[in-house]
């Protein structure tokens, strides 16, 4: 590349990355880079595969935590099914809707109608505004009738939809003589309880199978990353870096997206520090940054009081000997910390509600302990992550950067402005 013409300022080759786009968040890997999900691919194919032979497919719901390949595998299998069907002379379409954006029935049906129309010779105008759900359904049935034998509809993040009537409409369309085309629905959610929220009528007419995608283990994550090694220049990844990255990500969450992000961040770190290789140290640092970002993302919508509550719990854990603390203990320390940042504390009950919200977000875990009510049961809270990360994430809030750093907490013990609690009195 050195002899390339042009401004020399921009001529030097990236010393670390060769094809960085392979590590971008939105990047959809080619078929031959999808690894470790063969069984899941086969299971999804078994449910919708009948469509390729001109037979009715099953509907299927895919559940699993974030970054377990649900969206990727669904699109992959649906596309392959469409190609196979077309090879058999069947006019088959694939529709994808992200219901976290199209979160009402009207928005979803509008998007379905518009993408169905795309590329067909359907002449009717589909208005973007001013019409209701029923009109969009009518377009959907008409386009299916005119142009398709079958269609696979992927409803991603389906739990974000404000009602699930669309499931009934799609699954009963043939029966209700709206269209002769076969419709196979793949619903995706990371809430396993989604089915319980479905109306009984909808649940029975949707009559779906359920598949569960489990978090990736270290060897699967290793393969996923190995398959993208060419994002880096040759010999830049030191021995053992991918293994370490996979091990760390598997231990935390088994999330492929996060694993890839850590690898990318490690490369950025190496480049920023002028290193010629990406080392295990870069991976460890990148993992810390990723974890702090994750916590910051989770808490970004939280109030200052929730952040202070988290900080109070973290500082207990750093300076104390236990991993779990009672609401009361967290509250007492929180009051002291409010003093430090000149903020008026909320009530203990208010703080309790903030803690519950954080438990919901997955930043802390709360567990009821003790006997029945009369014996005074109480909640014990623990952090799901390293308290160091909480301290860092909370201090990123400009109004809270005066709070003691992790190192100071670890060195000097409780720093709560004189409101420190005698822990023994709560045991
Ligand atoms: N088996 C795999 N092989 C290669 N890359 C993968 C695999 N699984 C996931 N990935 C990568 O991880 C990213 C996240 O996967 P995906 O979006 O499918 O997860 P998800 O389960 O839908 O997560 P969410 O619940 O957050 O939407 C993908 O963009 C892809 O780059
Ligand atoms: Mg997804």
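^ structure tokens above, recovered residues below v
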């Amino acid at each position: 590349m050195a002899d390339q013409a042009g401004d020399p300022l921009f001529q030097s080759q990236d010393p670390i990355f060769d094809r960085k786009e392979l590590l971008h968040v939105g990047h959809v890997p080619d078929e031959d880079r999808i690894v470790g999900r063969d069984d899941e691919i086969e299971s999804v194919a078994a449910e919708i595969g009948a469509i390729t032979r001109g037979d009715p497919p099953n509907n299927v719901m895919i559940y699993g935590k974030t970054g377990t390949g649900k969206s990727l595998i669904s699109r992959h299998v649906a596309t392959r099914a469409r190609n196979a069907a077309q090879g058999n002379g069947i006019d088959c379409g694939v529709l994808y809707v992200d219901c976290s954006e199209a979160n009402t029935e009207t928005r979803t049906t509008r998007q379905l109608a518009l993408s169905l129309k795309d590329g067909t010779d359907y002449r009717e105008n589909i208005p973007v505004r001013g019409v209701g759900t029923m009109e969009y359904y009518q377009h959907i049935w008409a386009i299916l009738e005119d142009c398709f034998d079958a269609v696979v509809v992927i409803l991603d993040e389906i739990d974000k939809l404000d009602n699930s009537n669309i499931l009934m409409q799609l699954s009963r369309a043939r029966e209700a003589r709206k269209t002769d085309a076969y419709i196979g629905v793949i619903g995706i959610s990371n809430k396993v309880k989604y089915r319980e929220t479905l109306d009984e009528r909808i649940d029975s007419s949707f009559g779906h199978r359920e598949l569960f995608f489990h978090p990736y283990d270290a060897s699967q994550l290793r393969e996923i990353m190995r398959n993208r090694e060419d994002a880096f220049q040759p010999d830049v990844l030191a021995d053992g870096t991918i293994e370490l990255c996979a091990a760390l990500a598997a231990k935390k969450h088994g999330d492929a997206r996060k694993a890839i992000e850590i690898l990318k961040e490690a490369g950025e770190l190496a480049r920023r520090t002028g290193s010629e290789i990406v080392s295990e140290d870069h991976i460890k640092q990148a993992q810390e940054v990723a974890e702090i970002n994750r916590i910051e993302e989770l808490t970004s919508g939280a109030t200052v009081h929730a952040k202070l509550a988290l900080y109070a719990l973290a500082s207990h854990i750093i300076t104390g000997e236990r991993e779990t603390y009672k609401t009361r203990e967290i509250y007492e320390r929180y009051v002291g910390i409010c003093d430090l940042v000149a903020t008026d504390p909320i009530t203990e009950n208010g703080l309790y509600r903030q803690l519950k919200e954080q438990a919901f977000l997955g930043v802390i875990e709360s567990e009821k302990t003790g006997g029945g009510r009369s014996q005074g049961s109480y909640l014990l809270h623990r952090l799901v992550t390293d308290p160091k990360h909480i301290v860092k994430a909370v201090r990123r809030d400009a109004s809270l950067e005066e709070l003691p750093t992790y190192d100071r907490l670890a060195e000097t013990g409780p720093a709560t402005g004189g409101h420190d609690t005698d822990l023994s009195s709560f045991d």
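The radius of gyration is 26 Å.
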